[in-house]
Write a structure and sequence with these properties.
alpha+beta, about 25% strand, about 850 residues, six-stranded antiparallel beta barrel, 25 helices, binds alanine
Length: about 850
């Protein structure tokens, strides 16, 4: 594969120029609420550019998986219709963190463009930021100034998002010739098709903050990005990124699957092939990095991408799920350099199929609602209807627009967009309240003047420490008085801040008689650990020396549960298969909760196997090892479980218990024997393809078993029998119950016969018409068979029966066909009496029924009915 060769040669080149090759980060950003997906190589270094964190290198190079859907850089709608837009792409890049700046960045780029990419130097043009004379003159030593052009902020000032690192940039373009346009320079080439940009070098100098102002970065840095698909398309001399090797392989697989040939110039079908080839990469890479299609956040974006691919698939006659069938090809062409997709292959296939099936069902369901809406809309589909289709049925707006157009309707798109925005805002707010009790902004300045809180892992002894800052709500304060609620920040602490599913520690901060009770510990900002609680006695002052001590017993239980969660993960992989991947977890002192990807409910046998395996590892009393290795090394070891939920630095911590190896920063028990005993308390489903196990350990697990035992004892008492005889006893009772029911039915039958006989004796005549008026003592369900039976005996006539209970009554009327002819209709009669019995009902001509709240009205009702019949005769 040429792409693989270019990727490897690029990294090697920069490696020989003293750049550390850093692995691509997952496509899901960590700790960065400003970003949905990784959209550039520099994302994983954002904090390094901002001076908030340090690496052991000052030069780095990466080939970064990027997804540009949603947020500032969003190319979704363009994909498929242009020659170069993609939602997923690989960005090659080199970075300097306060090391080299413009001169070397430009020198390296020229060298790589002409010697690694092997581009014809005469075809290369560059653009620089309008005021950047320095970059202009540096380029002049490589190419004539006639091929250097200046652009303004829109083109040549790059920023990661609305906030974050940014700076002027310079771009390298390749002249693809007159075939693409007669523009003689990039300035005239509005579409950018002739002078194709293939590399952007950003001179990182500022941090743009929320109010729009720009603050100079601590050190001038370099961030570059080159889309590998574009580079390869230029090397191959093809018009279109979809004709480069990786994407073309997927298109070939799609051709085989659909039986339709790909013609890049076919305006109707080529976009479908292109969209599918692009979107399958976004889907597989995002799912491999832990995102699940859903209705919120990234999951929602993924769902949107999947549905777009499916809709385009329909143009190629795919009626059944097909995306999963493209996964093997993708894994073949990219799995070697991105092993995570190899590992997640079967999981991706399964998730894609389930999602597609569900979307196809949605299309069917939503389809009929849409038809109704189209039928009932005059000229336009209202925003509310469009939103309902989308929100309730997941119907894509694009689909609604297309179908509406066919029906000569338009859609209130502005109203729809507004409703969608409102819904998003609502969900953003809901999320904020849930996950963020601290406004991160208050710590931005704080961290500039304070070192990060040092974490000293000591659960048993107090630690000497100093109060660095205190807060009441979001205000920094100098003192905390008795009974005041607040937050303390120490210079060093034994308190573990909630992270990676492990809850924060509790305990005390004290000095002499002054006690601050810590009820929770969190890290609202990188490097900041806050102790949340209240002053129980005395008071506290800023800069005061204090002792900090955690609730060690509680921590031990948390650590036991955390190690048990790892053993559970290990056992699940063993029993169910390697596809089991953690999708979330919570570990506290009472239990552990573990969510993972798996399609079916776990059978009792599977749960038992998992428990047996975990308990076996506990009894082995394995020493829990923790050690640090480089992320690159960890990523090479398929035995080490790693998740997207973790923020991975270049050095990572491994927690190992023989077969179980996981990357994890949390607290663990020293020996697995401390866990004591493990028991699954509940197994359930939380979303399509995601199961949840709740489990208990130690004393809680023992209590779980005692509860079951006591339950059996209760049964023994109630049933008055020994445990071993319970099944026999219950069986006996069930049999007895059955035969009693049979007897009861017989008795009731006899009673009803008697009631019937009695009623037949009460037949009156009103002008030759047989008529029965009677209150009866039967159940409501017995009324209908009773009147039917009576009429069979009577052959002709009117039967009116009523049940009177304390506060309610029921009336049923049955009329034979010959009487109906006289205009005596059951449903009419029922209406006559509804007021009298304070109720209502209905029915048909031959039989009608009503319920009411006034049983005392029944006699009067009978009277009314009697005169009704008399009148009609
Ligand atoms: N971060 C720069 C970009 O994405 C290099 O274009």
């Amino acid at each position: 594969m040429l792409t693989q060769e270019v990727r490897r040669r690029f990294l090697k080149y920069f490696n020989t120029q003293s750049h550390t090759i850093v692995p691509s980060s997952p496509v899901v950003p960590h700790d960065d609420p400003t970003l949905l997906f990784i959209n550039a190589g520099m994302n994983q270094f954002k904090d390094v550019f901002l001076g908030k964190s340090k690496r052991e290198y000052t030069r780095a190079t990466t080939s970064q998986k990027c997804i540009r859907v949603g947020g500032k850089h969003n190319d979704l709608e363009n994909v498929g219709h242009t020659t170069r837009h993609l939602t997923f792409f690989e960005m090659l890049g080199n970075f300097s963190f306060g090391d080299y700046f413009k001169k070397d960045a430009i020198g390296f780029a020229w060298d790589v463009a002409t010697h690694v990419f092997d581009f014809d130097p005469k075809k290369i043009w560059v653009t620089v930021f309008k005021d950047d004379d320095e970059a202009h003159s540096l380029w002049e030593s490589h190419l004539p100034s006639s091929r250097i052009v200046r652009f303004g902020e829109k083109e040549n000032f790059w920023s990661m998002g609305d906030t974050g690192p940014c700076g002027p940039c310079t771009e390298l373009l390749y002249d693809r010739g007159e075939k693409y346009s007669d523009a003689s320079s990039p300035i005239e080439d509005i579409s950018g098709e002739r002078f194709l940009e293939f590399w952007n070098l950003v001179f990182m100098q500022f941090n743009r903050i929320a109010d729009g102002s720009m603050i100079p970065l601590p050190k001038k840095s370099v961030d570059t990005g080159s889309g590998i698909e574009r580079v390869v398309s230029l090397k191959l001399g093809v018009d279109n990124v979809f004709l480069t090797d990786i994407l073309r392989s997927i298109i070939t697989a799609t051709e085989k699957l659909s039986g339709i040939k790909y013609d890049p110039n076919n305006k109707n079908l080529a976009p479908a092939f292109n969209v599918i080839a692009d979107h399958i990469r976004t889907l597989v890479f995002a799912i491999s990095d832990g995102v699940m299609p859903s209705n919120v956040d990234r999951g929602y974006i993924l769902r949107k991408v999947l549905r777009r691919a499916v809709r385009y698939g329909r143009l190629l006659n795919f009626k059944k799920p097909f995306l999963s069938e493209l996964v093997p090809t993708l894994v073949d062409v990219m799995g070697e350099d991105y092993p995570e997709i190899k590992q997640s292959k079967s999981r991706c296939e399964e998730i894609l199929t389930i999602e597609e099936e569900s979307f196809i069902r949605t299309l069917h369901r939503g389809g009929s609602l849409l038809n109704d809406i189209i039928k009932n809309s005059k000229n336009r589909i209202s925003a509310a209807d469009a939103f309902r289709l989308k929100d309730t049925y997941g119907f894509p707006i694009e689909e609604i627009l297309l179908l509406a157009k066919d029906a000569l309707l338009d859609v209130d798109l502005a109203g729809f967009n507004k409703m969608e925005e409102d819904a998003k805002e609502k969900s953003r707010k809901a999320q904020k309240v849930k996950s963020q009790t601290f406004d991160k902004n208050i710590f931005t300045d704080f961290t500039k003047t304070h070192s990060p809180t040092k974490f000293c892992d000591n659960k048993d002894e107090e630690i000497k420490s100093r109060i660095v800052a205190m807060l009441i709500e979001s205000q920094f304060v100098d003192t905390l008085e008795k009974e005041q609620k607040g937050t303390i920040i120490l210079d060093q602490t034994p308190f573990y801040a909630e992270m990676g599913g492990q809850v924060g520690d509790t305990g005390e901060i004290y000095i002499g008689e002054n006690i601050f009770v810590v009820t929770d510990t969190q890290s609202p900002y990188p490097g900041v650990i806050v102790h949340v609680g209240y002053v129980k006695s005395g008071n506290f002052k800023k800069d005061e020396k204090v002792f900090a001590k955690i609730n060690g017993e509680r921590r031990q239980k948390i650590s036991n549960n955390h190690s048990a969660a790892h053993l559970l993960h290990y056992a699940l992989s063993n029993v169910l298969g390697e596809h089991v991947k953690q999708a979330g977890s919570i570990v506290d002192e009472n239990r552990l909760r573990f969510d993972f990807n798996h399609q079916q409910q776990l059978s009792y046998e599977e749960q038992k196997k998992v428990e047996i395996l975990v308990n076996k590892e506990i009894r082995k009393n394995i020493k829990v090892k923790t050690y640090e290795i480089s992320l690159a090394e960890a990523q090479k070891d398929p035995q080490i479980k790693q998740f997207f939920g973790e923020k991975y630095q270049s050095t990572v911590r491994v927690v190992e218990m023989e077969g179980s190896k996981e990357l994890c920063g949390g607290s663990h028990t020293a020996l697995t024997g401390n866990i004591g005993f493990f028991k699954i308390a509940k197994e359930s489903s939380i979303a399509a393809g995601v199961r949840r196990i709740e489990a208990v350990t130690g004393l809680n697990a023992e209590n779980f078993v005692y509860d079951k035992q006591e339950y059996v004892m209760t049964l023994e008492n109630i049933l008055k029998t020994a445990e071993s005889k319970i099944p026999e006893k219950i069986e006996g009772l069930l049999n007895e119950n059955k035969s009693l029911q049979t007897q009861l039915k017989e008795i009731r039958k006899a009673q009803i016969i008697a009631i019937k006989a009695h009623l037949l004796e009460k037949v009156e005549k009103i002008k030759n018409i047989n008529i029965i008026f009677s209150k009866v003592d039967v159940a409501a369900s017995e009324l209908t068979p009773l009147v039917n039976d009576l009429l069979t005996r009577l052959k002709s006539g009117v039967i009116v029966l009523a049940i009177a209970e304390e506060n309610k009554c029921q009336v049923i009327i049955k009329v034979s066909p010959d009487i109906i002819e006289k205009g005596i209709l059951a449903d009419l009669m029922i209406q006559e009496i509804s007021e009298t019995i304070n109720g209502g009902g209905g029915g048909k001509m031959d039989m009608a029924q009503a319920g009411g709240k006034s049983p005392s009205g029944i006699d009067k009702a009978f009277k009314i009915l009697r005169s009704f019949v008399e009148k009609k005769c």
